[in-house]
Design goal:
The protein has one domain: C8orf32 fold (Roll). By secondary structure, it is α+β, with helices and mostly antiparallel strands. The longest helix is centred in the middle third of the chain and has 14 residues. The protein is built from 4 helices and 14 strands. The strands form 3 sheets. Strands 1, 2, 3, 4, 13 and 14 form a 6-stranded antiparallel sheet that branches. Strands 5, 8, 9, 10, 11 and 12 form a 6-stranded antiparallel sheet that branches. Strands 6-7 form a two-stranded parallel sheet. A hairpin with a 4-residue loop joins strand 10 and strand 11. The protein starts with a strand and ends in a 5-residue tail after the last strand. The radius of gyration is 18 Å and the shape is globular.
Length: 264
């Protein structure tokens, strides 16, 4: 499948900012089943960009803008070719041992209810189905600091919340699990859409397998994998700091289009 992604992030401020520093994790990489045909990042201000990699192997781009700045936009556009792999994720950057991904974080710390869920559905496949059936996917803006335990207790959440819950549960069941951020063809609904989140689990004799508990399925050819980590804080598309006062306003829009290979 050929997937075309447009991801725009616009910041505006009630007071001019003296300096903007942003860390971007918005660039996907090739792996088995995913080939980046073209990708670019455009900024509507004079700026400096510096590319690197973080400890998880994600491509990072540091963005520096000198003020005064009252607004700026980050526009990401690219095309990615995908092939069916039955959920298997092979050939992706993998600099860290799988054992690291058994570690809980503040956002994925399991409580008694998550442990009980993992005991009742002790395999990744069973947890994927159980969480999909139990947790309602919601739209809107992410709530920073929302934990996996809160998502299970409330029975609803955005894709990043549901991915945190799944990662927490598979770790409680004894599997290494990592959070994944990217884009999904079925998960966008016009210009108000957000980036999507899912998870990968290391399964003996198979390797890393991608699961999307939002839908109870594997993440397959209509997904573009961008970044991964222990939780969302390691894979957030845009984060950073500013030197200036006032109120910050953020607008994010994602559009994903897909075309099967061989279509005109």
């Amino acid at each position: 499948m050929r997937l075309t992604i447009d991801h725009r992030t616009r910041y505006s401020f009630t007071e001019p900012q003296a300096r903007i520093v942003q860390l971007l994790r918005v660039t996907p990489q090739d792996h088995d089943g995913q080939t980046v045909a073209g990708w670019r990042i455009d900024i509507d201000h004079d700026c400096r960009l510096r590319e690197g990699r973080d400890g998880f192997g994600n491509i990072t781009t540091m963005l520096y803008i000198e003020g005064p700045v009252t607004d700026f936009e980050i526009a990401v556009h690219g095309e990615v070719l995908t092939e069916p792999r039955n959920g298997l994720v092979a050939g992706a950057p993998d600099p860290l041992p799988a054992l690291l991904f058994t570690r809980s974080t503040t956002l994925t710390q399991p409580d008694a209810a998550i442990v009980a869920l993992a005991q009742a559905a002790p395999t990744p496949e069973a947890l994927n189905r159980a969480i999909h059936e139990r947790i309602r996917l919601t739209a809107g803006r992410p709530t920073l600091g929302r934990t996996a335990a809160e998502t299970l207790a409330e029975g609803r959440g955005m894709s990043r919340d549901i991915a945190h819950l799944f990662v927490s549960a598979v770790r409680a069941a004894g599997y290494p699990g990592r959070f994944v951020a990217g884009h999904c063809l079925a998960c966008t609904d016009g210009p108000a859409a957000q980036p999507h989140s899912w998870a990968e689990v290391m399964i003996a004799d198979k390797g890393w397998m991608a699961f999307d508990p939002c839908f109870g399925t594997h993440a397959e050819i209509d997904y573009v994998r961008v970044a991964a980590g222990l939780d969302a804080s390691d894979a957030t598309p845009v984060s950073g700091a500013r030197d200036g006062g006032g109120i910050e306003m953020l607008d994010v829009a994602v559009e994903v289009d897909g075309q099967s290979q061989g279509e005109e």
